[in-house]
Amino acid sequence: MDQLIRKFGVVPVVAIDDVKDALPLGDALIAGGLPVAEITFRTAAGAEVMRVLSAERPDMLVGAGTVLTPEQVRLAKDCGAKFAVAPGFNPDVVKAAQDVGLPFFPGVMTPSDIEGAISLGCRVLKFFPAGPAGGPALLKGLAAPYSHLDLRFMPTGGVTPANLGEYLAILAVAAAGGTWIAKKDVIASGDWAGIEANAKAAVEQVARIR
User: What pLDDT digit, counting tens, does each position of 175-201 carry?
Assistant: First the structure.
């Protein structure tokens, strides 16, 4: 899964309020060359959006975000999510994901977080909140002692087109979480052309960097 995530370089992180917007969103991302999305559980529509996208757009890599409980892990799996992401490290949630065979990226911000995740077999970790925590410089230093373990990180929170290159220059980074690609208000307004343009620009930027 980490190699597939790395291929994209950016994973759109999406909070979506209305299920009717699921397919137009997916189509905009696909048209922009970025057929991947982390659909968060921060809205009531999140689970059904995952279900619709997984069923109707099978070529799209759909993940679940803001996964906080074992119950949400099982729901994400049932809805067709191919991976799940959390803002923090909760051993119970990690174990639930392992039980159902769902690749899981727990959130980390300290060496202790990383070592806890390593102890449960996690190898792809969400660095969150990336910007407030210290940005690329902190992540580079944080990842260094574990470089021999081949860990991969997905920095999220405060990542923008302006600093994306700094994150992707870190060898341990698989991809960055991109909240700017399909913002909640832009989805609600139906600006699918804008989302497609954002996705296309992100793809082009990743290609230039990597």
Answer: 999 999 999 999 999 999 999 999 999
Strands (E), 31-159: 36-40, 61-65, 83-85, 104-105, 107-108, 124-127, 152-155
Q: How many domains does the chain have?
A: 1
Look at the pTM and tell me if it is higher than 0.90.
Answer: yes
Q: Is 33 left (phi over 0), alpha (psi -120 to 50) or beta?
A: left
- For 37-74, write each residue's pLDDT tens digit: 999 999 999 999 999 999 999 999 999 999 999 999 99
In this structure, what CATH number is given to the domain that contains residue 99?
A: 3.20.20.70
pLDDT band at 4 (very low <50, low <70, confident <90, very high): very high
C-alpha gyration radius of the chain = 16
Measured CA angle at 36 (ends 35, 40), to 5 deg = 145
Residues recognised as catalytic: 38, 126
DSSP alpha helix (H) spans, 58-120: 70-78, 91-100, 111-119
3-state secondary structure of 85: strand
Are 61 and 4 in contact by the 8 Å Cβ rule? The answer is yes
Closest CA to 12 of 208, 170, 165, 161: 161
